[in-house]
Amino acid sequence: MRKKSLILLTFFTFYLTIRITFQAEQLTFLLDLDSPYFNFTVNTLNDSSYTKDVIFSDGENITVFIRIPKNSKVFFSNITLKGQMKPIQSSAIEEIFDLDIGNVLPSSENEIAIAAYEHLILLNNSLGEKWKYDIPGVIVYGVGIGNLSSDIGSEVVAGAANSKIYILNSSGNLKLSKDLGGIAYSVAIGNVNASNEYDEIVVGGGDSKVYLFDSNGNEIWNYSTSGSVYGVGIGNLSSDIGSEVVAGAAD
């Protein structure tokens, strides 16, 4: 079985640039954040250039002080932040078909739900495995996270190649499974019906149908297309009550 790496990307390498008009002469410099000041040399500023990686943790503020020559005047300055994505974590997992991010466990951090070959996997935000639900010999194609009950945490719903959806609680225990008329290729969870207390489940099927289920797995409606439904989404697209369902099909 082929492996795919799950890569967690974080933010940016920052560069600070300042532009100064000094005695009618404009120069631009990159600042060294370890030593953020200019050397003063006979009515001009030097042109030494430096860069430094700045990594921000959650909610952190970083202050950079800039020294300028005594009695000089800064007429204009401009600070530019440029970003570059860098991987902070990676993990080799069997054939990843889908993923979703949400607050599954009763904690302040989000988790990552992974749809893989024979497994539904929940990882923490450091890619450590919290639990794994096995479906032997079956590809798990779709996964979604949402609030389907009054239980602690959120539920995880998986759509599989055996024409079933699986609803698991936040601990990874099966609450119920539901048979469809075809492969469950895609899953989305959200509040479609504004009058309901809990979220609904949207499933895209290999039987050319889009299904809407309530939080207990009861079918509310289905919509027929002319081909397998590989992608579904939920969102507010109008002033109508509730949310809309969008599906992508092979017709």
What features would you describe in this structure?
A hairpin with an 8-residue loop joins strand 9 and strand 10. The strands form six sheets. A six-stranded antiparallel sheet has the order 7-8-9-10-11-12, with no helix packed on it. Strands 13-14-15-16 form a four-stranded antiparallel sheet, with no helix packed on it. It has a two-stranded antiparallel ribbon with strand order 1-6. It has 251 residues and is mostly beta strands. The protein has no helices and 18 strands. The radius of gyration is 26 Å and the shape is globular.
Question: How would you summarize what this structure contains?
Answer:
With 251 residues, the chain is mainly β. The protein has strands spanning 3-10, 17-22, 25-30, 40-41, 44-45, 86-94, 96-102, 111-123, 129-146, 155-160, 164-168, 174-179, 184-190, 200-205, 209-213, 219-224, 229-235, 244-249.
Q: Unreliable segments (pLDDT under 50, ≥5 consecutive)? A: 9-27, 36-52
Taken in chain order, the helices and strands follow as: EEEEEEEEEEEEEEEEEE
- The oligomeric status of these chains comes to single chain
The number of distinct structural domains comes to: 2
| CATH architectural grouping of the largest domain | 7 Propeller
Fraction in beta strands: over 45%
Mean pLDDT: 78
Q: How many H/I helical runs?
A: 0
Quote the CATH topology of the largest domain.
Answer: Methylamine Dehydrogenase, Chain H
Report the major sheet.
6 strands, antiparallel
Can you tell me the CATH superfamily of the largest domain? YVTN repeat-like/Quinoprotein amine dehydrogenase
Count of DSSP E strands? 18
Briefly note the structural class of the backbone.
mainly beta
Rounded to the nearest angstrom, the distance between the terminal CA atoms is 30 Å
